[in-house]
TrEMBL record:
Family: Belongs to the bacterial solute-binding protein 8 family.
Subcellular location: Cell envelope
Any one biological process term the GO annotation gives: iron coordination entity transport
One family name in Pfam for this protein: Peripla_BP_2
Keywords: Signal, Transport
Keyword NAD: no
Signal sequence residues: 1-34
Gene Ontology CC, one term: outer membrane-bounded periplasmic space
Gene3D superfamilies: Nitrogenase molybdenum iron protein domain
Protein name (database record): ABC transporter substrate-binding protein
Amino acid sequence: MLKVNFFPKISALARVVAAAGLLIAGACVPVAPAATTSQPAESMPAEVEITHYSGTDTAPVKPETVVVADMAALLSLHDLGVEGIAGLLGLGVPVPDQYAAALDNPDFAELGSVWEPDYEAINALEPDLIIVAGRSSRIYADMKEIAPTVDLTVWEDFYNKFQEQHRNMGLIFGVEERVEERLAELDALVQDVSARTEGAGKALILMTTGAEVTAYGPGSRFGFVHDTFGYAAADENLERDATHGDAVSFEYILEMQPDVLFVIDRASAIGAEGKAAAEILDNELVAQTPAWQNGRVVYVDSFAWYIAWTSLPAFFQVVEDVEAGLQ
């Protein structure tokens, strides 16, 4: 596992690939960026108007010097074969090996963190474009003072906005065809899993942080389990639009009688010390739930779900994790 100080497994689903006419072999595996398909230079506009999370801005097409302030955006750009990323602001979290190739650039400038940007260093790069999203959305206005800035945050109406923001990347970087290929691969997998969740029981999403356990339902940051994939919710009354979830007890988990549990280990995702999620939930109350008794407790890829879920590589992983709840 790679740790970068300046930065805050997937089954092929053979039946989907066959049904999609062998869309792309190994489509659900995060792959090394393929050669991008670009419009002829003479036909491309110099600028494009982008409507994004924080407004509408004009962005240069195929910018040469780009600052990225979001790990998920970086992973998607790498997946799409985009070059020209000059600097990064991150979260200082460990990056698992399967995602580390996106960071393998000795020329990346150190620009501070999402929480404490080095505005002087960012300005010195004279970027053509700055990309913020998610946790860095709050610095959109500040970044816009330096260079054209787009906010590729994905939140409400998750799956539609996920696709929309990736199409925005395609427009900006001239890789529209590559974006459509990857979204089509992803959607084939999403639709396959979604077609099998009806009647698969009630799901409950949990996140552990140290000894604390929080729960998430429809409309929350992890609500795509219900809203996109169609799992019934074990509790329809959890706070919607929740970022941090509702704190819950083991008695609550037993009372909800979930048929499947999806568990995010936040401490693991951010490289913090503390008990692992599997240890926290291994108790006599949780052991009485249908999910535990039937072997349907899914300890998900916590980096993918908590840090990078709005990226192409991470969401392919999310699909695999969600499918695992069916088995």
